[in-house]
Design brief:
three-stranded antiparallel β-sheet, 9 helices, globular
């Protein structure tokens, strides 16, 4: 066993030790699983494993990262910064995705296979966040999570130095709202910059999305992922 294997094995043991303590004292917990180009190939295996360790509340987050662009390179980043909805790039080519980014259709297939497993015997026992949100949307309820809400901007991110940003996906200089040491959190959350950021999710949707029959369900999803071009060039 090489060093990487040993490190991974020790991490796994530590995680399971912590979960055993939670279960022993009947502390509820949820699991957040990142879905990459590798893990997307094993939906049912992952779902059954999470159930086997006692997770009743499951979240799945798709890894969607693009190769570094000019803007990100100037900031010394390893991957591209979120797309600028105010100023689309002049180059209308779709960006290059990172090798571990999950392909869109594969991610959809991943969720479908888990749903087919879940619907057979786990309704009311195991709660998958995306399924709960989708069910709510079809009942005309609010988004439930920012991804599928009509507007966003209320899930702020705070860094160790007190800097506040519009979202944990947007911890970049352009999206800094201020610092908690000299401005209250409520003032930053209700600032014009924060409100514009949240409203842009709705206001900057391309016509292709506005005309979509299923817009009520996703509302364009996370603005961080709006980097492709629509068929009509928006």
């Amino acid at each position: 066993m090489n060093r990487v294997d040993k490190k991974g094995n020790n991490t796994y043991k530590n995680v399971m030790r912590g979960l055993n303590i939670l279960r022993k004292y009947k502390v509820e917990f949820n699991t957040l699983s990142c879905v990459s180009s590798v893990t997307v190939q094993h939906p049912v295996k992952i779902y059954r494993f999470l159930k086997s360790i006692g997770s009743k509340y499951l979240q799945f987050i798709p890894i969607v990262e693009r190769e570094v662009d000019t803007t990100a390179a100037k900031l010394g980043l390893d991957f591209a910064a979120p797309p600028d909805l105010d100023t689309p790039p002049l180059n209308k080519e779709n960006p290059r995705m990172s090798k571990f980014a999950v392909p869109a259709e594969a991610y959809g297939d991943f969720l479908v296979k888990i749903f087919n497993e879940w619907i057979k015997r786990d309704v009311g026992k195991t709660y998958v966040q995306l399924f709960d949100v989708a069910f709510g949307k079809w009942l005309n309820n609010p988004g439930g999570i920012c991804y599928f809400a009509e507007t966003c901007g209320r899930a702020l991110a705070m860094e160790h130095d007190g800097n506040i940003y519009t979202c944990d996906h947007y911890v970049y200089p352009k999206y800094k709202l201020g610092n908690l040491m000299n401005t209250s959190l409520s003032e930053l959350a209700n600032s014009p910059t924060a409100e514009k950021f949240g409203n842009d999710k709705r206001e900057k949707l391309p016509q292709y999305c506005l005309n979509c029959h299923y817009r009520f369900a996703c509302n364009g999803e996370c603005p961080k992922h709006r980097f492709n071009w629509t068929p009509d060039g928006e």
